[in-house]
């Protein structure tokens, strides 16, 4: 027993020693690897191994923080580096397209971590697996754990784009049209919290890490389907380099299981250890240059924060004091008149930080947020005589006030687009409007509303409803101070949990005394009994009718969905048709106008197609078109769109792709079509014209340029790619 304990301690110690010393020392528990003469010669010819990752934000698997690569995979590869005696240089790109380009061109030795699939094994070599992940769904607590989320009609799902499981999610979802993709897991979860989507699908380890680091409450994880969906990731190596595959496999297999278990415990089961790390030297240098930060608050938001005799008071004041005591910088209050004034001051540069703010899709473009330290429901304040609002989505033409600039304005407009909303500068202004019957109620968070209503200053009013939204509050800083938000997260972890809870409970514990008017209660109960009796009698008659109506509605909905799909699908090849492509191009140009991403198209023509029909018959010609479309569809990205442009022509729309990379894709597709025989028709070829969206941002000239390039390719002998390059002004 003692011997096993000592062995485990030594193994755990070796993991952290290797990490701290940059994997320079040899692990005494690992025997020297025996390489072949060819493998050793290859190692001797290299000064370092260049590994590239597609994402730099895949916490806790692999991510970049302060310019340093971190995560489970990084620490595992560092041990492999020690085993094979070759340093590792890491790099990352922001798109799959760029990563594959660097991989194909030999600018990187390998990609990691990459999920192994049968298709990918045709184009790359893979090491033994280094990571196993399980796919799960993150849903609000109110959604039962046993429900099949994917089968819910019109459920809005979110995934991170360019992931292996994106296509699988679309296959299982009842309506894949409601599947939205996001660039980062942080954006994905923020969209869920804002109500833009209903559920998030990702690897379990990633979602657990996000929940823990961002202190997310009110959500839980459920299985993707009844069967477990696990993915094995490995290091992908180019087919031209089998020696590297063998070398890395030996380095990976040499790691003891106990060491791998220790790494998994650190990153996947006990993430708090990694979060509690002290502030780095890079962060300290940033703070030394910063020295002082001006901040703004809401001066009229009791009990969370307000100004009293010119002094910052409330929950956020106590929290800021705790943070201040742990940082070598000063926080200086910039006074404002109201919350909207504070937001404007931040935009004008008069302050750089908001102590209590909630993230929205709009704000994320302008600010960086710390983890949330307070969550509170969004409620509706009404007069006591008004009936309780159980569902704001069905209340008809009621008018509601809200505090201008508050985050829930954006949340409410997303979740309840039909509500009539009117802005006010403060809680008091909204309440006076309710007293004057200008509105039927106003929206606020539960803590603020309870504080005011329980004070005795607002008799005759109550919390008369609850929206299906929560407000998560944290500290926001301008984009220029993004490192400060990460530093504040480290500070949060240094404050003992009991102290954090004490600060929150000091200001959010509200005692509400409820009184009951007995006479009114008897009347209400009598009326309620009559209503219940009527409902029971009505339901008895209507139940069967509703069941039939529901079945008819479901059948009609299915028929409409099938008709809608048929309207944009080519009946022969089962890919998108001309209408589908026109719609996609319009949407991509709209995205281009907002984000200025590159956009290219590939116009493809099956060479000598008339001869195929004349020689083999139209049935074989149809099979050739089907085979070409299938090969094209199987070898483009999830973000690319393929459709039949007409006759034997196909069009591929490539977002975020410049002309040169589009040409690389075109050549790859041309070779794939030409390398394998078609059923009954033998080897066939295609010609491709490539063009890029110009400054005019119009689709017709872009397609015309691709058509000119295609004509050039066919005129030069076919089975080739031609590029339309615009002349410089």
Q: What's the structural blueprint in terms of helices and strands?
A:
Blueprint (H helix, E strand, L loop, with lengths): L1 H19 L16 H9 L3 E5 L3 E2 L3 E4 L2 E3 L1 H13 L3 E5 L3 H9 L5 E6 L8 E3 L4 E10 L16 E4 L4 H8 L6 E4 L2 H10 L4 E5 H10 L5 E5 L6 E9 L3 H12 L3 H13 L1 H5 L5 H10 L1 E5 L3 E2 L3 E4 L2 E3 L1 H10 L5 E4 L5 H10 L4 E5 L9 E3 L4 E10 L15 E5 L4 H8 L4 E5 L2 H9 L5 E5 H8 L7 E18 L3 H13 L2 H12 L9 H50 L10 H18 L3 E8 L2 H8 L1 H16 L7 E6 L2 E7 L3 H16 L11 E7 L6 H17 L5 E3 L6
Parallel strand pairs: 1-5, 1-6, 9-10, 9-11, 14-18, 14-19, 22-23, 22-24, 29-30
Antiparallel strand pairs: 2-3, 3-4, 6-13, 7-13, 8-11, 8-12, 8-13, 15-16, 16-17, 19-25, 20-25, 21-24, 21-25, 26-28, 26-29, 27-28
Q: What are the segments in which pLDDT stays under 50 over at least 5 consecutive residues? A: 1-30, 270-277, 510-518
Radius of gyration, Cα only, in angstroms?
A: 31 Å
Query: Structural class of the helices, strands and pairings?
Result: alpha/beta
Hey, roughly how much beta strand do the residues contain? 15-25%
Task: Give the end-to-end Cα distance, rounded to a whole number of Å.
Answer: 78 Å
Shape: globular
Please tell me the overall pLDDT: 79
The major pleated sheet works out as: 10 strands, mixed
Number of helices: 24
Residue share in helix: 40-55%
How many β-strand stretches? 30
């Amino acid at each position: 027993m003692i011997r096993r304990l000592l062995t485990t301690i030594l193994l755990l110690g070796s993991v952290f020693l290797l990490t701290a010393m940059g994997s320079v020392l040899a692990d005494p528990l690992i025997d020297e690897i025996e390489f072949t003469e060819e493998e050793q010669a290859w190692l001797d010819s290299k000064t370092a191994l260049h590994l590239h990752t597609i994402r730099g934000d895949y916490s806790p698997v692999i991510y970049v923080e302060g310019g340093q690569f971190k995560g489970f995979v990084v620490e595992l590869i560092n041990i492999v580096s020690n085993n094979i005696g070759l340093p590792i240089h890491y790099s990352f790109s922001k798109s799959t397209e760029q990563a594959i380009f660097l991989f194909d061109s030999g600018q990187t030795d390998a990609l990691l971590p990459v999920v192994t699939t049968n298709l990918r094994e045709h184009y790359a070599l893979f090491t033994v697996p280094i990571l196993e992940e399980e796919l799960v769904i993150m849903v609000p607590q109110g959604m039962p754990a046993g429900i099949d989320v994917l089968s819910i009609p019109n459920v809005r799902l979110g995934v991170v784009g360019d992931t292996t499981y994106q296509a699988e999610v679309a296959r299982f979802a009842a309506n894949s049209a409601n599947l939205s993709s996001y660039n980062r897991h942080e954006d994905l979860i923020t969209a869920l919290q804002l109500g833009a989507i209903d559920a998030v699908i990702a690897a379990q380890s990633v979602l657990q890490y996000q929940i823990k680091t961002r202190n997310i409450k009110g959500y839980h994880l459920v299985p993707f389907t009844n069967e477990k969906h696990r993915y094995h990731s490995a290091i992908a190596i180019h087919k031209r380099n089998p020696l590297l595959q063998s070398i890395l496999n030996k380095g990976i297999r040499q790691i003891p299981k106990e060491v791998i278990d220790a790494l998994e415990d650190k990153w996947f089961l006990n993430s708090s250890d990694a979060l509690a790390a002290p502030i780095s030297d890079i962060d300290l240098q940033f703070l030394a240059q910063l020295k002082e930060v001006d901040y703004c608050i809401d001066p009229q938001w009791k009990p969370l924060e307000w100004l009293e005799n010119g002094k910052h008071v409330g929950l956020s004041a106590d929290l800021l004091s705790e943070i201040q005591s742990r940082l070598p910088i000063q926080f200086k209050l910039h006074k404002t008149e109201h919350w909207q004034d504070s937001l404007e001051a931040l935009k004008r540069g008069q302050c750089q930080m908001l102590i209590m703010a909630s993230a929205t899709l709009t704000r994320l473009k302008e600010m960086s947020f710390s983890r949330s330290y307070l969550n509170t429901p969004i409620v509706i304040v009404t007069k006591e005589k008004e009936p309780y609002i159980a569902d704001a989505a069905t209340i008809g033409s009621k008018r509601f006030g809200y505090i201008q600039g508050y985050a829930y304005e954006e949340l409410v407009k997303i979740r309840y687009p039909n509500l009539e909303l009117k802005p006010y500068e403060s809680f008091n202004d909204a309440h006076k409007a309710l007293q004057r019957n200008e509105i039927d109620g106003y929206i606020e968070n539960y803590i603020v509303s309870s504080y005011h209503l329980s004070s005795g200053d607002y008799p005759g009013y109550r919390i008369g409803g609850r929206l299906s939204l929560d407000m998560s509050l944290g500290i926001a800083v301008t984009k220029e101070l993004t490192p400060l938000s990460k530093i504040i997260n480290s500070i949060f972890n240094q404050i003992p949990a009991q102290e954090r809870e004490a600060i929150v409970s000091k200001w959010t514990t509200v005692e509400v005394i409820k009184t009951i008017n007995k006479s009114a209660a008897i009347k209400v109960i009598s009326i309620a009994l009559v209503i219940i009796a009527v409902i029971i009698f009505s339901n008895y008659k209507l139940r069967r009718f509703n069941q039939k109506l529901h079945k008819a509605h479901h059948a009609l909905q299915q028929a409409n969905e099938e008709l809608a799909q048929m309207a944009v699908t080519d009946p022969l090849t089962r890919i998108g048709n001309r209408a589908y492509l026109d719609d996609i191009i319009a949407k991509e140009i709209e995205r281009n106008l907002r984000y200025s991403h590159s956009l290219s198209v590939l116009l493809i023509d099956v060479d000598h197609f008339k001869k195929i029909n004349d020689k083999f018959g139209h049935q074989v010609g149809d099979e050739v078109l089907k085979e070409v479309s299938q090969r094209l569809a199987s070898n483009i990205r999830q973000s690319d769109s393929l459709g039949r442009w007409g006759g034997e022509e196909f069009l591929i729309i490539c977002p975020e792709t410049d002309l040169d990379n589009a040409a690389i894709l075109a050549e790859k597709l041309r070779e794939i079509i030409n390398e394998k025989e078609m059923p009954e028709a033998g080897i066939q070829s295609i010609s491709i014209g490539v063009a890029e969206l110009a400054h005019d941002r119009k689709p017709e000239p872009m397609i015309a340029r691709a058509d000119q390039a295609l004509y050039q390719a066919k005129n030069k002998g076919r089975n080739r790619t031609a590029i339309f390059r615009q002349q410089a002004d």
